[in-house]
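The freezer alarm interrupted the setup, so I double-checked each line after restarting. Inputs confirmed:
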Amino acid sequence: MGFFVLKPNLNSSEISYVADDSPATVFGLEPGDIIVEIEGQSVNSWTDLSTIMSNHDSTLLSLSYTRGGITYDKEDISIAVMIQTAGLTNQKADGTRYDIDPIIGQATGRAKTDGELQEGDLITKLQVGTHIVTVTTWDDVIAFLRITIVAK
Amino acid sequence: MTITYVRDSQTRETSYELISERALSKLGYQPIVFQIGISPTSSFDLGYSLLYPFKSVGSNVSQVLNTLGLLFDRSENLGIGDLSGPVGIFSLVSQTTSQGLLSILSFTAFLSIKIGLLNLMPIPALDGGRLVFLGVEAITRKPLNRKIENTINNVMFFILIGLFVFVTYNDIIRLIKG
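Predicted 3D structure, all chains:
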């Protein structure tokens, strides 16, 4: 079975596959395109791309890529965020997303069973321990959870 | 965590426990993940293909051990209610099938490793328990009292069946709740 598994080429930032209805299609990305910049930081490999994405903190993303020698710049396009620690995502089951407003696309695990949250719920306030914050965007939710995760 | 939210123009409140970063990273997840929906290029590499099965078995084994470790870790809030039994596994499979044959094959392999490892645990009524009894016999060079061995096995068997019923009940509830 190992022979069906191909080795990912992490030294290049060339794309081989674009998922249907994914944020990538909104960016206009196609297989063969090479990503050169994300959020103003230059990208030379897939490893660079992963590093930048793991430090990212917004549901909006700016990205530049080249195709046939031409560079395309796309700004503030909504991407999917999965908050695993809380079982929440901005992406709906049909693949579309809530980009700015912190409306739940899908609730999984405990968020669904214990919290009884569901698609369409608009998050307005979060509290962990003594930390309380009013949120108006997904970015607020991400920032708050990043802090509380570290604080734990 | 307590969340205040608006549903049908009504403000409501709910709370549930977060899964810790440590537990997530032990299971191979990051606390917050962004997705664009792209994959890197890949090519056939003999060395990679030859090593892949061993790496993959290794990571499956460590995932099973980590999960068990987390369940018994008092500082983590993961409990038996988060366990996935036979029915839970079924609904996982149907999610996997949409990703193609290769994922079904690797998932089947993972299941088989998982069941094999659990069977080797030193629990009476399982093969691991039988091995312990045989080990004791090998050291003492005397056969154990079969009556006692059978009683231990039978008692454990009913406890395991009880666990099986509990986990299946949780799974069915999960299926009904969606």
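Quick read of the result. DSSP finds six helices and five strands in chain B.
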